[in-house]
Here is the input.
Amino acid sequence: MNVSSPSQNGSLSSSRDSYNNAVIKNVIVIALGLIINYINGTLIHTFRKHQILYANPRYVLFIHLVINDMIQLTTIVTLFVTSYIFQKINGTLCCIIISFAVFTTQNSPLNLAVMALQCYITICFPLRHSEICTMKRTYIVIAWIWAMSSIAILPDICLVVAMDYGKLFLSTIYCERDNLLRHPVSKQKRDVLYSIYLVAIWIVLFYTYLHMFFAAKAARSDGDMKKARNTILLHGFQLLLCILTYVYHLIVRLLVYLFPRDFLDVIFVSYIFIQILPRLVSPIVYGVRDQLFSRGQQLPKHRFPLLRRQTVCKNIFKAAR
Here is the structure.
């Protein structure tokens, strides 16, 4: 893998892994990617079979997150492996891969913030939940998520095309965001935009989760209170991991500065914990621990009696809490 590490003067210097380290790292990344995508694929299969799931805004947002994470994981793993095999690739192909990676990476924390708001409405305003969280509004919110993510990459691509850097599309480069979008304006925009997203999502995180926690504490028994607390903590942990993508480049630079001799391993560990492992938390929080998904095989595929429908809806409401 050809990676770039910041030197003391701010320039980038290239270095490579040994053959054994390269093989080990690629095996780890590919194995994690396949395992996580397999788990997410089973959740999509369960979701696709049961109408009660894709008629509920909570599960539509969840499955959008799952599909988005599968695309993101496939993209970054492909980019990781190709960086070892080809080192340099065509600028146009690199632009496509980077665009998918940025889109999907930015979608995850925004999607989780929207899911936090949806859970907040379910718990704190249960009588108005069906009025506020409609399917039409859910799809509008999903479109808004993609529109907000586009701000992080599309203006930069237009800038590359407009400036002299447009020649990059016809050349071969080390496929890294800073190599492709290297105009100073792009880096400044990224820092400002990520700071705004970071602050906004933190506000949503604290506001919604604190209100949900106190609402659950006031309304539930000790056993249910413990379960609600654990769910909220897992939600918060997952969102925290995804938020780290906004400061990923700062974390890497800090760790490389602290451990300059092991910067290749530092970059790899940061990549695993910030880019890959957060995609494993979603199936645990929303899939394995969700009663409706864990019992999905027992549900009829399309039509079912009214009593069964009422029971399932109650399970959805309990799961949302």
User: Anything to note?
Assistant: The chain is about 75% helix and 5% strand.
